[in-house]
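hey can u check if this looks right to u? its 529 residues, i copy pasted from the old doc so theres a chance i mangled smth
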Amino acid sequence: MKENTKRLIAFICAAACAAAVYTGCASAEAADPVTVEQTKAAEEQTQQQAEPEITPVRDTVVIATESEPPTLHPFDHKSVTAGYMNLLTYSCLFMIDVDTLQPVPDLCRSYENVSETEWLFTIYDNVTFHDGTHMTAEDVKASMEYGRTFATTKDYTSFWTDIEVVDDYTIKVTTDGPYALTLFNLASIKIVPKALIDEGNDFNQNPIGSGPYVFQSYTLGDRIEFEAFEDYFREGHKAQIKHMTWRIIPEGSSRTIALEAGEVDLVVEVDANDVARLESNENVAVCKVDGTRLNFFSVNTEVYPFNNQDFRKALNAAIDRDAVVAVACNGEATKAIAQTPVIFEGGTDTNAVDYDPEAAKTYLESSGIDPETISFSCIVSNDTARRAAEVVQAELLELGITMDVENMDYATQLTAIMSGDYEASIIGYTSSHPCIYLSGFYHSSAINAANLTRLNDPEVDRLIDLSKTQIDDAERAATLTEVNEYLNELAPLVPLYQTRVVRAANAKIGGFDVSASGNSRFEDIFWAE
């Protein structure tokens, strides 16, 4: 069932105070005269007693996450956890709206699409970087060009042919023909100081941007500390919480216990087995949003036996997704059989291979591969993925295929699968737009980045490239449907489930939103007490 609640909580606590007023008339002198000093002392004591005790507003928050970010760099990664860190320290020309998943201006004060291939963007003239320097159009141009030097950014930095600085706060961007994703792509390009780029600054060690929080320290395997940026340019969104700590707690039950004990205030990845328990706790608020993240059994299509299409279809037909959802997610997900999230424009189950043990045997026979000769390893990095892998392991054994489950930390897992140094893995991918999802995950240019299956198919590339140029919604939808049907036929991976985005927090935290793609504006949270 689709969850309608998107806002975690937005408490406004009000206290109504009543004061009793006493009046009296004396017709005779008091038996014991009262001195002026005594009168003043009594009045002061009364005033002190009448003044309510003021509880200071909390200015710290502790957030628990399951994975260590592989980097704090603005470009050199495809990590969800690193993306959370980037949201704190960097700003872009645009940002993706939490509710609509559409790009809205961030650093950009105004913009104009002056022709099919030319855009003008003007930034605010009052933006300061964390190092105290002033942002200009030169920083924007340098950042866009710098981002383009990383293999992990090709899906969102390759759309322009020229960038020109018009004046101190305006740039002109020229594209190679009409391009429908210009604003979406600019919502991924973080702006950093040109001077630091020129100096060769290590943005992993020294992540200087213009975001709402300033990086303070990183204790590997434990925590990352941030402080609110007092000169943040978005006046209405300056961080209300001064100190923000991210705790790295890999085990799901440990994150839940830490929240219940008050050791952490917000959990980003809630273990599915603990959702009902947390929902019954009056001191905890749980938020669920139908998400765009697809979780899957990814295989390396460059290596045997996964380079065999019929073998991949046999894997798809052999795995009971309902069992995966029940065991791995405790029912807090929706089974998936399509190669991309069906929630997106053009999403479809047409040509997808669903659970069918007999069909699995038929596909395996067509592949010409003897299952008794196949043995491989599946790498995982968290509890949910491990439980899913154990279901897959049991299902494949029914076909005579041996699969081992190997645990490793998230950063090591990402390095392995992005470089192609793996056979299989349980992992997921998310985005805010179907074209961005397809381009980032299935286009051949994303090999060694987010193209985890390492699919290299000219027709897939052609259709993805075409969809990004189609301004007309109907034309783009038709192309997206075509490429999705084709991907379902190729079966480069085994879709497992589409998750809900689940967050849990202390019930006194307000202002916390989460999008279907899993992102939040952490600077907007506050303590409602």
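The first helix runs from residue 36 to 50.
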